[in-house]
Amino acid sequence: MANLKEIKRKISSVKNTQKTTNAMKLVSSAKLKRTEELARRSRVYAAKLTELIEEIAQKMQNASAEGLDNIFFQANDTPKKIDIVFITADKGLCGGFNSQTIKRINQLIAEYQGQGIKVRLRAVGRKGIDYFKFNGVELNNEIVGLSAAPDYKQSSEFIAEVVESYVNGETDRIVLVHNGYVNMISQEIRQDQVLPVDTSKLELSTVSTSEMEVEPDDDDTLLDALVKRYVEYSIYYALIDSLAAEHSARMQAMDAATKNAKEMVKTLNVKYNKARQEAITTELIEIISGMESMK
Amino acid sequence: MELMKLEIVTPNGVIFDDEVKQVTLPGSEGEFGVLPKHATLVSLLDAGIIVIEKADGSEVAVAINSGYVKVDEEKTTCIVDGAVALSGEDSNLSKALEEAKELLKKAESSSIAIASAVSKVEQIGKSF
User: Fold this and answer.
1) 3 state SS for chain B
2) Which of A96, A129, A274, B58 has the most beta carbons within 10 angstroms of its beta carbon?
3) What total number of domains does chain B contain?
4) Which chain A residue shows the shortest CA-CA distance from B77?
5) What is the pTM of this model?
6) Are residues A190 and A267 in the same domain?
């Protein structure tokens, strides 16, 4: 009988877990819809901004013989110091979402250090911070709470510090790594070079060759402001993208968990019925054999 | 009269995308108007008001805090940080006016530019 009780307790506990995972799944799918909409709208802005930078970079490249001489565009083929900014979630229970990002970061670190490059890490999100702290890896900069609720101002402040160290020459390259949203059922790791602006990726040839007036006259003022905005927006967009991916990953993970719980309840039920039947059979045998012995 | 395309993009999406007759923009070097077939131009935008003359002759005003504009012959693209549209058709005009003033005051531009922009917002409020 003790066995029966135990199974019954197990069934109700699994059922409770199932309720929780199901609720988490519903919450995530609702949040995903909202974040997806946000991502969709900000994508237009990001695209326009990139377009504008492309055109101005093109124009400046045409204007001067030695190409772009702005600090934000000078490609450095042999960087000595690289800053990696990466985004993870603040919360777990979302499958391999965080561990995938962490895995990529570890790969990157190994790769860069193999080439003799110094790497500094800057983390957004509690899960990544916890992981690297636990493993004794020093983090240069960390921020919690931003990945759950992307805020333009906060993320700008965070990235401003990184940009400053780039301008000061403390770092030669800034790389941004996050787990991005592809669709409802898949995410992919995205790795972008934020600074210097990767001119090889820009489609410079498509731009018209007509003269372009620039106000204020001095190119650098406009370009500096534009690049600053571009960098700020890159990280902000990455945060939104990462949040959408987090929700979709959690939705999947919770869906799988709910299904597994259902399976488990089913098998436990079978087990329970078997045990009950067994107990009844044993009792019957006892009664019958008792009666037999009285004859 | 000829028309050109005008697009205003904010981080929260496209808020204006239509054919217009003329647009007046608050450039960092001073206010300027753009008509169709304007020479290619890129400019910083300060806090202020974008005044749009639509194809049917009606006027729409949009308060912005800062941004950029790219003009070429057929198309004008404004990339702005924050924007509040003010138009006569809007039933929540008073609320929009308040929002616009709030947005301008928060912008990090010179106080003179903001004062002039705020007074313009008030004028628009009266004219509708």
Assistant:
1) CCCEEEEEEECCEEEEEEEEEEEEEEECCEEEEECCCCCCEEEEECCEEEEEEECCCCEEEEEECCEEEEECCCEEEEEECCEEEECCCCCCHHHHHHHHHHHHHHCCCCHHHHHHHHHHHHHHHHHC
2) A129
3) 1
4) A48
5) 0.81
6) no
